[in-house]
Amino acid sequence: MAARYQISGSTSAAISASVESGIRAGDLAPGDPLPAVRALAGELGVSPATVAKAYQVLRQRGLVATAGRHGTRVRPRPPVAARRAALLPPPRPGVRDLSGGQPDPRLLPPLGPHLAALAADIGPPTGYASVAVLPELAAVARDRLAADGVPATELTVTGGALDGIERLLAAHLRPGDAVAVEDPGWANLLDLVAALGLRAVGVPVDDEGPSEPGVRAALAAGVRALIVTSRAQNPTGAAVSADRAAALRTLLAGRADLLLIEDDHAAELARVPLHPLAGVTPAWAFVRSVSKPYGPDLRLAVLAGDEATVARVAGRARVGAGWVSTVLQRLVLSLWRDPATGDLVRRAAGSYDRRRDGLVAALAARGVAASGRTGINVWVPVPDETVAVTVLRDAGWSVAPGGLYRIAATPAVRITVSPLDEPDLPALADALTRPVEGGAPY
Ligand SMILES: Cc1ncc(COP(=O)(O)O)c(C=O)c1O
Predict the structure, then answer these.
(1) Atom number of ligand 1 nearest to Cα 233
(2) CB of 229 closer than 6 A to ligand 1?
(3) Residue environment code for 298-321, b if the CB has 16+ CB neighbours within 10 A, otherwise e
(4) From the DSSP assignment, how many helices (H) and strands (E) are in the chain?
(5) What stretches of 366-400 show up as alpha helix (H) in DSSP?
């Protein structure tokens, strides 16, 4: 706790280093408050401006956040080896963990046969000179995207969706720039935006995607980028509908000052049609990860976009990390081409739909409103997240507190359905009615 950790230093650099060191060591945990600027200045015998400068640097690096009357606090996942798990109550024996946001490992395609087939015809080692996006992978990716209405003439490959988004933001924006993100939205994206020194502007999201007035307000606030989750929005399950896409396309048409990023992370797992915005702005990118349908450890996403945007991402990668291993690219290609894997992914999509819809329906039958139109999560509004997380943990369920995903959105908990089976749903729904009604912890 901040009360126990003594921040030291007589310059802003030393003070921010002292806070960073406290975070690294775990003495300052996610959510811990830092002392008020004047109080710390008094303690350290420095001017308030010196402490304010130290806090500003920490904020720009995404280590802390300042939120009005809540003061300055350590962010949920500061980019210095702090673990998000520190925010969650420690799991107790027998507690089912529904907090993870992971795909169901029982429904991921087995990689062994594909690795064995690759091993049989891998050929000579690939060297620095001959690496790039594999033409065969690019061709299949292009066809798959084109079938969904995404013009993918230009594309590259990144180490997952978030890697692609990081590269896009770094290539187009500068620290201090504002970026519009869904609220509630994906916690890791909020952490990334903070770590890049960007300012997140929340856009309310409903079942049909980011709200039009919300996007309008974000544009008026001068955002330089807008990130939209196409389907299986995390945490609410929203998917951009045809009507919402039409409205947003009208609003965004021709905006030369805005980078539009679409994140289609669930890809084949989302069984609603894609309504892309791709191409409506001169600078755009559409990122499709393989993590959810094929496995997060594959670390691969396809990034399509306008020529300049794709060239920036690919060119910057070339002078840095280089490329996504062609071994990995071959593995993904093998999965995409395998009809049995395609069947498994379709079965997985149906299974998530049944469990998610089943939970939403079981909650509705108990008078509890929840969202979860697509994907692997259900978002349940609650009066008090701490109470809800505690009540549910005592009933045997670990869920994620909504605070990780919210800017101005109202409190809720996120439930990942991957570890659930359909017979579990009534008991979980029963357990959820208590915190939703505002019950105290047992
Ligand atoms: C909205 C969103 N985008 C992307 C991802 C996956 O990203 P990656 O490809 O980096 O694994 C997730 C995973 O939970 C997500 O929720």
Answers:
(1) 1
(2) yes
(3) bbbbbbbbbeebbebbbeebeeee
(4) 15, 15
(5) 385-394
Going by the DSSP 8-state scheme, the letter that residue 33 receives in this structure is B
Residue to mutate, 102, 158, 289, ligand 1, most ligand atoms under 8 Å from C-beta: 289
The protein residue whose alpha carbon is closest to atom 16 in ligand 1 is 234
Look at ligand 1, atom 2, and give the residue with the nearest C-alpha: 265
- Verdict on whether the full-model pTM lies above 0.85: yes
Expressed in angstroms and rounded, the spacing between residue 265 Cα and the centre of ligand 1 is 5
Structure tokens at 343: 């069947």
User: Dihedral sign, CA of 160, 323, 335, 147?
Assistant: positive
284 to 167, 214, 368: CA distances (angstroms): 13, 19, 38
| SS3 of residue 32 by DSSP | coil
Q: Which of 233, 234, 378 to mutate to test the pocket of ligand 1 (most atoms within 8 A of CB)?
A: 234
Q: What is the spatial distance between Cα 405 and Cα 110, in angstroms, rounded to a whole number? A: 31
- The C-alpha atoms of residue 306 and residue 267 are separated, in whole angstroms, by 20
- 101 close to ligand 1 (CB < 6 Angstrom): yes
Residue 167 Cβ contacting ligand 1 at under 6 Å: no
Q: 89 C-alpha to center of ligand 1: Å?
A: 23
Distance CA 381, CA 369 (A): 7
Q: Is the CB of 342 under 6 A from ligand 1?
A: no
In what helix (H) or strand (E) does residue 301 lie, and over which residues does it extend?
strand 301-305
For ligand 1, atom 7, the nearest C-alpha belongs to: 161
Q: How far is the CA of 264 from the centre of ligand 1 (A)?
A: 9
pLDDT tens per residue across all 442 residues of the chain: 445 799 999 999 999 999 999 999 889 998 999 999 999 999 999 999 999 999 999 999 999 998 877 799 999 888 887 544 455 556 678 899 999 999 999 999 999 999 999 999 888 878 877 778 999 999 999 999 999 999 999 999 999 999 999 999 999 999 999 999 999 999 999 999 999 999 999 999 999 999 999 999 999 999 999 999 999 999 999 999 999 999 999 999 989 999 999 999 999 999 999 999 999 999 999 999 999 999 999 999 999 999 999 999 999 999 898 899 999 999 999 999 999 999 999 999 999 999 999 999 999 999 999 999 999 999 999 999 999 999 999 999 999 999 999 999 999 999 999 999 999 999 999 999 987 776 544 4
For residue 441, whether the previous peptide bond is cis, meaning omega lies within 30 degrees of 0, is: no
